[in-house]
Design goal:
Helix content is 32%, strand content 26%. It is α/β, with parallel strands linked by helices.
Length: 246
């Protein structure tokens, strides 16, 4: 082991001890030590955002130290339209790890091309064809030319239901092909061929409860025949129709 290597190890150990034992005055001292300058930044969790763009936003520039307050970096990265949140961690004496959570696309809107939107109805800067997004189509929706947001209130409420159901049953949501807002109170989900039901009608309000009731009713009705549709708009009642699918 060379003298230079031993020196670097010694500095790293001393820095770690100072940082742990004295969180208030240790980091300011350590920021001035060249061994702790940021030389590598790993970004994980990205699917659509470009890591280079996130590094540019954070500005891990010359003189940045792993002991710098990460709050500024995290806030800067979170300003990216595709990033929901970011956390920055020390991952070595000269290395940082950035863990990001991207905004989730929940549906596609015909514009007339396809545009991805999030649960709030905001258009995302993602090319659905380039990333092969397998998402349901939000029927009858348009995007406001000024804001890039879904213009119809029923459409935005439908997107909120999709997000709710995605956290409850991701497997079910992978089978939804189209979302049709029916009125100010309810929406209809059209499922792909081979699903247990062709169409499922749910209320906007308390959609998770209605979905779970519908799932139980569909499972029970399946023993009597092919389930074509289920309507769970009514409190404590689910209307299931069986018969031949066309």
């Amino acid at each position: 082991m060379t003298r230079q290597t031993r020196r670097r190890i010694g500095v790293a150990l001393a820095g770690a001890l100072i940082g742990v034992s004295s969180p208030f005055w240790g980091p300011p001292i350590l920021r001035g030590i060249p061994a702790f300058e940021v030389r590598e930044v790993e970004i994980v969790g990205v699917r659509f955002a470009e890591p280079a763009d996130l590094r540019e936003l954070a500005d891990f520039g010359v003189g940045a130290s792993i002991w710098d307050d990460p709050g500024g970096w995290e806030k800067a990265i979170s300003t990216h339209p595709l990033i929901e949140s970011a956390r920055v961690f020390r991952a070595g004496t000269d290395r940082l790890r950035v863990e990001v959570q991207e905004v989730q696309a929940v549906a596609l809107v015909a514009t007339p091309g396809l545009a991805a939107v999030d649960a709030n109805g905001d258009r995302l800067g993602v090319d659905p064809s380039a990333h092969r997004l397998d998402l349901p189509i939000l029927a009858g929706a348009t995007l406001d030319s000024a804001t890039g947001r879904v213009a119809e209130e029923e459409g935005r409420r439908s997107l909120a239901v999709l997000e709710e159901l995605a956290s409850l049953s991701p497997e079910f949501m992978r089978r939804v092909s189209e979302v049709v807002p029916l009125d100010s109170e309810s929406l209809e989900l059209h499922l792909i061929e081979g699903s247990l039901v062709d169409r499922l009608t749910l209320p906007y309000a308390d959609a998770s409860r209605a979905f779970l009731q519908a799932a139980a009713a569909i499972q029970a009705a399946e023993q009597r025949g092919t389930v074509v549709s289920a309507d769970a708009r009514y409190a404590e009642k689910v209307f299931v129709r069986t018969g031949d699918r066309r």
